[in-house]
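Now read these lines:
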Amino acid sequence: MHQLRHFRGKLEGRWWIKKGVGAAAIGVVLIAASLLVGPSWDCHIPAIYNFGDSNSDTGSVSAAFSRLPPPYGDTFSGKPSGRYSDGRLIIDFIAEKLGLPFLSAYLDSIKPNFRHGANFGASGSTIQPADAKLFGAGFNPLSLNIQLLQFEQFKDRTKEAFNQDKSSWIKNNLPRPEDYSKALYTLDSGQNDLHFGLVQTTEEQVRASIPNIIDMFAVAVKKLYQEGARTFWIHNTGPIGCLPFFAVWNRPKHFKADQNGCIKSYNQLAQEFNKQLKDKVFQLRTQLHHAVLIYVDIYTAKYTLISEAEKQGFVSPLGYCCGHLGVAACWQTSIVNGTEVFAASCSDPSKHISWDGVHYTEAANKWVANHIVDGSLSDPLIPLTKSCHSADLPS
C-alpha cells in the first residue's frame, strides 16, 4: 500500500515525462523499479533550512529573550546550548546524517555560521499567527509566518552580500545563492497549536480549528516554494496526550487513558491533525509540480517508543527527568515547607523519554531520528539521504 500511495503521489505531482502514453508508461515502470530497490546514490544536500517550535529550536528563543539555564544542555555540551533538552534534537541528528554541521539559530549573534543553512525554529511558536491570547498564554510571537519573513530577509541579504563582496568570510559563513534550490527544508510545527487549544479552549474547539491551521501551513509551504524551495521534509505532530505535562501534571477530569497511560482523546486530536496535514501534503503535490514533499510520521515513531519504553531501555514512558511534580518546573526554585528546592535533573537522562515533561531527552530524540531517517515512516518511502532523488526526475 505504501508503494501504491507513493506511485500515486508521483503521478499526481507530474514527476514523469509527458511524451505520449508509451513514454509515460515506461516512466512509471522506471519509477516503480527505483522505489522498490532504492536509488543507488545519495543526494548532495548542501544546506538545511528549518522552521518549527521547541522540537527543533537550536537557540532562537534562548538568544532572543533569555538564555536557558543549566541543567539544559548537560548531556550535549555540559552547558546550555539553546536547546530545550539535555542534549541534541532530531534536527541535529538529521544534520549529522547528511554530513552537515549543526544549524545555527538565525537569531543567535554569537559566532553563527550559516554556510550550510539556518534554523528559524522558535520554542513556543505556532503555525497560526500569535495574537494577544496566544502571547498572553505564554506562547511565542515568532510564529511560522514570522519565521518565513525572517527567511526571506536572510535569503535576500545573503544574495546581496555575495554580489557585493567576494571575501573569504562571506564564502565561508554564508550560504551560496545556488544552494537555496538544492537545500532541504524541514518543518516541524503544530504541537503548540494543539497545546494552546487544549489549555485555553475545549477539545471540540480544537478539532474545529484544525482545518484553518492546516491551511495556514499550506500557505507557508507555497511561500517557500515561491522562494525556490524544492525539497520538503515535513514532520507531523507527536502524541500530545503522552506528554507528562498533560498526562501527569494537568490531567483533565474523567479522562480516558490508553494502554500507556496517555490521554486518549488528546492523541485522537493529534491523529486528526496529522490526517488533515497528510491530505494537504498530497494536495500540494498536485500544485507544486517541481517540489518533493515528504511527509514524515513522527507520531508513529514517538508512540512506538512510548509503547516499548522498557524494551528500548527507557524507564516509565510518562516519567520525566528534570523538575518536581507539583513543586517546581525544570531549573526553577520553589519553597517547600520553608526549604528552598531547586528542580535539578535526574542522574541519568538517557533512561528517560521526557526531559522536562514537554520536551524529549537527547536519547529519545536520537531513537526517533534513527527510526525516521531510513524513510520507513515517510510518504513517499524515501530515505533522508535520498530525499532529492525525485527532484532529479524530469518534470
Remarks:
- DSSP finds 13 helices and ten strands in the chain.
- The longest strand covers residues 48-52.
- The two ends are 24 Å apart (CA to CA).
- Strands lie at 48-52, 117-119, 184-188, 231-235, 292-296, 323-324, 328-329, 333-336, 339-342, 378-379.
